[in-house]
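Researcher: I'd like a structural prediction for the single chain below. Treat it as a standalone chain; there are no partners to consider.
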Amino acid sequence: MDKFFPAIEPFKSGMLPVSHGNKIYWEMVGSPEGIPVVFLHGGPGGGFTTNARRFFDPNTFKAVLFDQRGCGRSRPLVSEPDADLSSNTTDQLIADIECLREHLDIDNWIVMGMSWGVTLGLVYAQHFPERVNAMVLGLVTTGTYREISWITREMGRIFPQEWERFTAILPKHKRDGNLATAYAELLANPDAEIRERAALEWCRWEDTHVSLMPGWKPSKRYQDPQFRIVFSRLVTHYWSNNCFLKDNEIMLGMHCLADIPATLIHGRWDISGTLDVAWKLHCAWSKSTLHILEDAGYGGTGFVETIMEALDGFS
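Model: Treating it as a single chain, here is the predicted structure.
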């Protein structure tokens, strides 16, 4: 069982207006005088859960959590077919992080990211290294075309029956192309039934490609129709645009992180996000430590404890 800190409520929260009519929900937990740390959730579009508050020792840290634009408690949501996604890009999310840091009058902070939040955190740190004291990164990703292609296409070699179902919803002439783009088109269809079926099938595939994790159980979040549509729209939007990054952009910018210490955490059984990504990042980052969890996959045994130990090491 995960050994989180006890449940905690925020001591401060709000809605921060950012660009293009967006408002992002944010909150702070822990000690008002504690060490600042910002939590970047996965997805894109996953939002953060209340359990994320429990990574942080409330006597040590002032933890900032927020829902990235378009998802969670931020507004407007991208659940409507006519939602404008043109202003939902990696650069805009980075600008939102800086806007929030300035709004909260924080000079610099520890950056903690999970999954997509790792990619976002790395890009943020490469843009603003002077604002980052340290990084704790779990479920390591770097947002490359190769990683996206692995999850959406090559994983079909491991789960062939499930992949056939995943692609069966798509028009035949689009099954050999960019699958995220093809799904994004379905998720923007004016027909609600088409959108809802596409969101359901996308989330079923999301559940499938992390299912080799020891002790895996289907995500309860995918049972919520609104969460499914928001999550799948944003994931396919970002993935169909290669996360709005030049390919291999993060690895090419690793010199920007040379002075920032980091802990990388990845499960041996994380088949959806292969371990070589974390390994190559670690090899390019002299101040990083890589923890390979032998009994974990996309989360699981030892993850929470290792994250909390890493945070404690930077306190």
